[in-house]
DNA sequence: TGCAAAGCTTGCACTCAGTGTCATGTTCTG
DNA sequence: CAGAACATGACACTGAGTGCAAGCTTTGCA
């Protein structure tokens, strides 16, 4: 279920190819010069497109690094909704989030990206913004598990649990980066969750 | 311990006065036109200073709204360290954070600010950034309470608890804003914490 | 009291991100 | 093949934020 299904329109295929090309170019430049020191003009001309076209593909410089967090969020949501109804909100959420650390993720690139986050405030900021989106995505399921009428009230409980779980995720990734990829991210995440729930 | 001690140099006093003046002007404009629709030029000329001077007082447009979150963080840290050593990390943190909701806070202004957050992404982003700073501020005390050697390891536990507590705080404020200030923020916070720790 | 250092204000010029518009070309659909 | 839909790039523009230098005021010290 990945890598460019052939039964796609030409436009769509080139679009994806160009997008990938921009991403590769940009990540290379970021790794070489740092995120902030790299301008959109540099990325565009290195990728052989115009500055304007860059912004047809990505809403912001940050978006290149973030990848498709929206799609990732949807995947996690699906994993969450697939967990048995008998599991508590915390259990189901934790397990769903662990699907992010699949074997298909490229650890080296991930580590490079994680390192960028640590010295580019605007990147961290956008990332946290995305988590706010995820919060809404996961809320219905978590509310169901808590037995709250969905979306009806301004009940903070579901959102609090989700936000806490996402915080654990971020902390785990951060600790993983600090260990230079040596530590096991899932273990770190479990440790974080355990500490929060103790 | 507030409002312009008189034994201060003239420069310092004027500096504070100007800063306050800019803040008032800016908040008024933000309330009238919205945060994003208000430009720094507008704020500067409405406050009777040059655009350049504005940036001598505030690092960014967002900073005007945020106030002195750094100082606030220090206050919370002090409150945290003043809690009895017998309290758990969660207990101490919760109580320390509740000092933010003192009787001296102007609910009307706070509500207006909270509303701005909800429709200005850059504002939310900067706010979350500040919380990252708070995390470092609170970490030593929390590590002590957990019995972790301070700062030595990449142990995620202290950071996770702090991040979770701050998430509860944000969620509580958000819910409070949604209730238009009707609900009790401390109750909302407690509900959030209870849900997370359940 | 007077003078030098330090600080404040401002204008100007600059970089960079991001957006709107429009003309030109390419691909898709029927 | 015609027309719709989309892609591209050029141009011009806004708005945030920074560096620099000139001219002023305050302050601290001799």
Tell me about this structure.
- The structure is a homodimer of 198-residue chains.
- By secondary structure, the first copy, chain A, is mostly helical.
- Chain A folds into 2 domains: 10-59, Homeodomain-like (Arc Repressor Mutant, subunit A); 68-197, Tetracycline Repressor, domain 2, CATH 1.10.357.
- Chain A has helices at 10-33, 40-47, 51-57, 61-66, 69-82, 89-98, 107-119, 121-146, 157-178, 185-197.
- In chain A, helix 5 (69-82) packs across helix 6, helix 5 runs parallel beside helix 8 and helix 9 packs across helix 10 (185-197).
- The radius of gyration of chain A is 19 Å and the shape is globular.
- The model of chain A is unreliable at 1-5 (pLDDT under 50).
- Chain A binds chain B through residues 121-122, 124-126, 128-129, 132, 146, 154-161, 163-164, 166-168, 170-172, 174-175, 178-179, 183, 188, 191-198, and chain B through 90, 121-122, 124-126, 128-129, 132, 146, 154-161, 163-164, 166-168, 170-172, 174-175, 178-179, 183, 188, 191-197.
- Chain A binds a DNA duplex (30 and 30 nucleotides) through helix 1 and helix 3.
């Amino acid at each position: 279920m990945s890598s460019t299904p052939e039964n796609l329109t030409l436009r769509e295929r080139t679009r994806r190819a160009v997008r990938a090309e921009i991403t590769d170019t940009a990540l290379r430049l970021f790794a070489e010069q740092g995120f902030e020191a790299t301008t959109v003009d540099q990325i565009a001309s290195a990728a052989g497109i115009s500055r304007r076209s860059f912004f047809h593909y990505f809403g912001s410089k940050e978006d290149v690094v973030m990848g498709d967090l929206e799609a990732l969020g949807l995947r996690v949501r699906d994993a969450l909704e697939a967990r048995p109804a008998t599991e508590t909100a915390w259990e189901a959420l934790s397990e769903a989030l662990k699907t992010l650390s699949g074997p298909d993720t490229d650890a080296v690139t991930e580590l490079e990206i994680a390192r960028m986050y640590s010295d580019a405030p605007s990147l961290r900021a956008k990332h946290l913004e995305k988590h706010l989106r995820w919060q809404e995505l996961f809320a219905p399921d978590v509310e169901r598990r808590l037995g709250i009428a969905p979306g009806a009230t301004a009940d903070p409980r579901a959102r609090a649990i989700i936000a806490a779980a996402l915080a654990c995720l971020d902390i785990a990734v951060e600790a993983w980066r600090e260990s230079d990829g040596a530590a096991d991210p899932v273990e770190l995440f479990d440790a974080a969750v355990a500490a929060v729930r103790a």
